Structure formats: C-alpha cells, structure tokens
Amino acid sequence: MLKRDLINAVAEEMPGFLKKDLDQALDIMLENILQALEDNRRVEIRGFGSFSVRERKARTTKNPRTGKVMHIPPRKNVHFTMSKSLKDGLID
Hints:
This protein is an alpha+beta fold. It folds into 2 domains: 1-41; 42-92, HU Protein, Chain A (Irregular). The protein is built from 3 helices and 5 strands, in the order H-H-E-E-E-E-E-H. A 3-stranded antiparallel beta sheet has the order 1-2-5. A two-stranded antiparallel ribbon has the order 3-4. The protein is elongated, with a radius of gyration of 19 Å.
C-alpha cells in the first residue's frame, strides 16, 4: 500500500475531510514518529505495534569475494514489534 492509497482509504471512511488535509495530517504524524525515534524514544501504536531504536555494535567482517577484512562502524536500526492483535489477525 502506498501513501496515496492510505489517504484515499481514509478519505472514503471520512468524507468530510479533504485529501490534502489528510495528507498533511499523515505527514505530521510521520514527522512526530521520526522525531521520537531520533530522540531515542519508543513509539507505541496500540493495536498495531511499537517502534524502537536499537544500536548495532561495531564489528569486523571479511569480504567473501576479495578476502579483505573490513570494519563496520556501530549504527542504529529501527526495530518493529507487532502487537498481539495484529499478529493474531495475520495468522488467521
């Protein structure tokens, strides 16, 4: 599903709102989620799941093609954990 598909689906459910207003509301929500993750805070959306930031340690690895040893610096990844209701809905 693309962003425009999501906006169209919400617009069908809520005909009193303009698509440009729904687009702006979605942008604001995504910006706030991004800001919370940048501040290393957990974001929980009940009934959907939670997003958190996890840090990967620095490591050394070998390129299988060249055999050259490479150093990979530490980095942050976004981790998503789905809610129980979402998991149950996917299993059915």
